[in-house]
From TrEMBL:
InterPro entries: Beta-lactam/transpept-like (IPR012338), Glutaminase (IPR015868), Glutaminase_EF-hand (IPR041541). Residues 98-179 form the Glutaminase EF-hand domain. This is glutaminase. The keyword Repeat applies.
């Protein structure tokens, strides 16, 4: 993420508010005050018991003059709204989100190289191939054909981004679920490298197609609910979903028929037995849809009465929607091998048929063929991570915005993944990781962090329980680093990283709110900031009272000149904004230095401010 440097943007923000250039204040300018100015003639509403070391200033009050239109209410002159709007859109005045985005990326330059824009975009987690940015990217390509230097001025940049400005603004203002995506991606890379060094495990070899995979293959891909993407390792190699498809087809069945109908045929409890056991619960139903018996019955509930060809097309369309139209394929060789070596599953099928577990009129052999087909669907880590993110996003695909599954189907699916998704390791995984997941014998682990992201880990070597060795290690390390466990305390578990929170002090958000309050002329908000303990007045002055240098040092790195007069802090001679100058003078009358706890060094000694007004109600 590029750092926000408001060298030009903030200057134009205040120019648009003050309707004049920001220059050093002179006596003539003070006399020729703008239509909306501050008056010191109003009554002083401060408590009479509070000392007033600097009596030359009183609480500023906003005076409305004839013809002046307030920013927050309708009154005289509100009919000139369109004219005022046109004035704001003159060149040199910040008129729109597009311009703000331009200044954020340009960092004081007049043009933005196209590669700089795409690099900044990728740092937020978005991809140039994101379907939501299709119009922007197409316009960018067309625009670059007309430019010789591959750079965009403000007009061309606005033309390119205006069709997707809402999404881009969210990205660059860090409004996504993972604000500091670059930092989080670096942590993911570290976890990947840590798991990569693991050895051990054995590649599944019950069919030749699985045995051919190299044990060195290892990939991790993630997709957040806002469509932020990150991949590392072998994430473009296709592999079969195998058992990872079980929660997906269960979700489709519940989406089509509802929970009550589906669970007439399938239970909800962990079995405590091997996934391919010929065993039913006390009601003669499969224990859950994550074991082979339950998955076979669940397969029989999809598109009942249709042919296998129609069923397969239906499921492939559903898979494509879940994956945001990214890669979803089919391995016919794996399907043939599964059918030839599927004696155990045929035995389970006949046992289910004997116990009348299928819906009436079901062709058991056709259902088993369809079951093997679904296990042979191919994905990559990248496309499977979007499937997981769709589950994390309540059934909405994060990169297309399309609703694919009902909330009921997603909730039930995640519940069963949490309790039954990791074969005989399900209890241990729920205890240590605490997240919904489903593993497969091809080496994949489909991991869901509800309301945050979906992750696909893939590495062929399996442990004795049939789970990916590297995948289990990655998931365990992820929850050890981040507070993603379902029962992590988000408030008090400070030792864990919370990627959902923006890094830095809470004061950063207050700074942004303060700047926009000044831009909109919200004096009451400025007063509240001054009287709150979140924003220190010294930092407030650092942003606005350093003359021409304020735009280069608005982060508070440059110490402005202050004048200590009569025991009160007042802004120095370099304050350039009448609005802010009066506000800061009022601020100086409400605070006094407390010499008992020195913390701020000035030319006159050490001081710390003590607030004189105890609540926001005393400010107006």
């Amino acid at each position: 993420m590029l750092p926000f440097r408001p060298t030009v943007a903030l200057k134009e923000l205040f120019q648009s508010q003050l309707k004049r250039p920001l220059t050093r204040t002179t006596a003539a300018e003070v006399k020729a005050a703008p239509a909306a100015c501050f008056s010191t003639s109003g009554p002083d509403r401060r408590s009479p018991g509070v000392g007033r070391p600097f009596t030359g200033w009183r609480s500023p009050q906003l005076i409305r003059k004839p013809g002046f239109r307030g920013l927050c209410s309708k009154g005289d002159g509100h009919g000139d709204a369109s004219r005022d709007s046109d004035k704001r859109r003159k060149p040199g005045i910040l008129p729109s989100l597009e311009d703000l985005l331009f200044y954020t990326i340009a960092e004081g330059q007049e043009k933005i190289p196209a590669h700089k824009f795409t690099t900044a975009l990728k740092s937020t987690g978005l991809r140039t191939g994101d379907p939501r940015l299709k119009e922007c990217m197409e316009m960018l390509k067309m625009t670059l054909k007309t430019t010789s230097d591959g750079a965009l001025d403000r007009h061309l940049f606005k033309k390119c981004v205006q069709s997707n400005i809402v999404l881009l603004t969210q990205a660059f203002r860090k409004k996504f679920v993972v604000p500091d995506f670059q930092s989080f991606s670096a942590h993911i890379d570290d976890l990947y490298e840590n798991a990569k060094n693991l050895s051990g495990g054995q590649v599944a070899d019950y069919i030749p197609q699985l045995a051919r995979f190299s044990p060195d293959l290892w990939g991790v891909a993630l997709c957040t609910v806002d469509g932020q993407r990150h991949t590392v390792g072998d994430t473009k190699v296709p592999f079969c979903l195998q058992s990872c498809v079980k929660p997906l087809k269960y979700a489709v069945a519940v989406h089509d028929h509802g929970t009550e109908y589906v669970h007439r045929f399938i239970g909800k409890e962990p079995s405590g037995l091997r996934f391919n056991k010929l065993f039913l619960n006390e009601d003669d139903k499969p224990h859950n849809p994550m074991v082979n018996a339950g998955a076979i019955v669940c397969t029989s509930l999809i598109k009942q009465g249709a042919s296998n060809a129609e069923k397969f097309d239906y499921m492939m369309n559903f898979m494509n929607k879940l994956a945001g139209n990214e890669y979803v394929g089919f391995s016919n060789a794996t399907f043939q091998s599964e059918r030839e070596s599927g004696d155990r599953n045929f035995a389970i099928g006949y046992y289910l048929k004997e116990k009348k577990c299928f819906p009436e009129g079901t062709d058991m052999t056709a259902i088993l063929d369809f079951y093997f087909q679904l296990c042979s669907i191919e994905v990559t880590c990248e496309s499977a991570s979007v499937m997981a993110a769709t589950l994390a996003n309540g059934g909405f695909c994060p990169i297309t915005g399309e609703r694919v599954l009902s909330p009921e189907a997603v909730r039930n699916t995640l519940s069963l993944m949490h309790s039954c998704g990791m074969y005989d390791f399900s209890g241990q995984f729920a205890f240590h990781v605490g997240l919904p997941a489903k593993s497969g014998v091809a080496g994949g682990i489909l991991l869901v962090v509800p309301n945050v992201m979906g992750i696909m880990c893939w590495s062929p070597p399996l442990d004795k329980l049939g789970n990916s060795v590297r995948g289990i290690q990655f998931c365990t390390d992820l929850v050890s680093l981040c507070n993603f466990h379902n029962y992590d305390n988000l408030r008090h578990f400070a030792k864990k990283l919370d990627p959902r929170r923006e890094g830095g002090d809470q004061r950063v958000k207050s700074v942004i709110n303060l700047l926009f309050a000044a831009y909109t002329g919200d004096v009451s908000a400025l007063r509240r900031f001054c009287c709150s303990s979140v924003i220190s007045g010294y930092l407030l002055g650092s942003w606005f009272c350093s003359g021409s240098d304020v735009w280069c040092h608005c982060a508070g790195l440059h110490c402005p000149p202050w004048t200590w007069s009569r025991g009160t802090m007042t802004p120095g001679r370099h304050c350039t904004s009448l609005l802010l100058k009066d506000t800061l003078r009022w601020f100086g009358s409400c605070w006094r230095p407390a010499r008992s706890t020195p913390s701020l060094k000035t030319g006159g000694g050490t001081h710390q401010w003590t607030r004189r007004c105890t609540s926001a109600t005393t400010m107006s």
